[in-house]
Amino acid sequence: MKRDNFGSRMGTLAAAAGSAIGLGNIWKFPYITGENGGAAFILVYLGCIILVGLPVMLAEFSLGRKTQKNAVGAFKELAPKKPWYLAGMLSVSTAFIILSFYAMIAGWVFSYIVRAATGQLNSVAPEKLNDYFGSVVSNGALPVFFTFLVIAVTALIVIFGVKNGIEKCSKILMPVLLMILVALMIRSVTLDGASKGLEFLFKPDFSHLTKKGILEALGHSFYSLSLGMGIIMTYGSYVNKEENLLSLAVQVTVADTLIALMAGVVIFPAVFAYGLKPDQGAGLIFVTLPAVFKSMPFGVFFETLFFLLIGIAAITSTISLMEVVVACVTEQFKINRKKATLFVALALFALSIPSTLSFGPWANVKVFGKTFFDLFDFLTSNIFLPVGGILVTVFAAWVWGVKNVVKEVTSDGLHEFKAKGLFAIGVKFVAPIGIGVIFINSIGVMKKLQAMGLSSTGAFGLILGVFVLISFIIWRIKCRTYRIEE
Ligand code: PFF
Predict the structure, then answer these.
(1) Which of 53, 294, 394, 423 has the highest count of CB atoms within 10 angstroms of its CB?
(2) How far apart are CA 278 and CA 288, in angstroms?
(3) Distance 232 CA to ligand 1 centre (A)
């Protein structure tokens, strides 16, 4: 079967940036920034992007392009007859499960586009917006319909393939997204009282920054760049062999970060200008912002534009999540793209139902004490994603080897890569340790160790020790497997 590829440099960038830029940038980044005190959090986030995000992105891009295979096939090719392909399977499963509830949130956004455009949202009294949001997400059938709609639209794009579906669509949607964002930014910063919001966003106040905030920045940098679930690897497999992967990865990272900051510039000046609070958590875009638009001249227009912006960002991400699964099913089971996409979409319809209903009729159905949505979210965000991230990083850095990654990144010496040394430190040590800390914290090990009487430094030292031991064991296995003398 002939493999589809990206057709142009711009198209590759649009698709990869489209994957990275999503609900994470426009919904989550602003609200976690709001909860963690603004600019100080942003500085930490930037550090995480450079030290952890960028090295892992390079590793994923190079694994994909080297093998020209899907996330499972790539591991099978580089480590034949070894269980590393399980890491690929974990990534593909993570993408599949995340997509089932990411589509649900995108569905809420789609329903808000309709509600904004028809003026319905604007007619809700500000103090009723919270209840209104509750009634939207808990109304059993309608959220299911919008979730299905998102999955169907995504499948319709993916079915046309990499060049004619994903690339073409991203090349249209990304510039539209940028134009809407700029228009909204201009609207927001020209409001009376906007400067307080800009100050909140750009003047660091470290007194609000907590350890939890730092971990959140690290976790979000990973999620925002679409790392750890085979996406960048799969997209990398469609990148032209002569393409400079370093500049591609840097451009995707810069675009992702800029868009997140621009979303902050849209949201906070407007929130402050209308005297509302920046720390309303997940409700920031569904509850706080509609109150802002209500008081604004031409509010219905700007509100519709705003939800359209989020809808576009979400769709370019859902297509990347679906592509990981479709590429894997197509290549590993040798079936054509059309059948694979239909099959994946149907399976997603089914899996999305429990999460979607867990905000309404199934709110009391609990598994291990959690609703379906909480369970899927916990499993993927706190366990699968960090474990997948560590495995892919360890594989690239320690098993396949930094030398091979660098060779692929530079197209065998065709391009320059000056910061090789820094990259090696990032991908070998900083990234796995960083992701390891997120993982250990998210499954509550730190808390348990502290409850056993260890100080937080002691607990951290113990965990680091275990990590070094595991690294040593992996290194020994690697030496034996590849008969390399280190
Ligand atoms: N990076 C996207 C965002 O920030 O919303 C979301 C995402 C897409 C996460 C794809 C993970 C992923 F694999």
Answers:
(1) 53
(2) 8
(3) 10
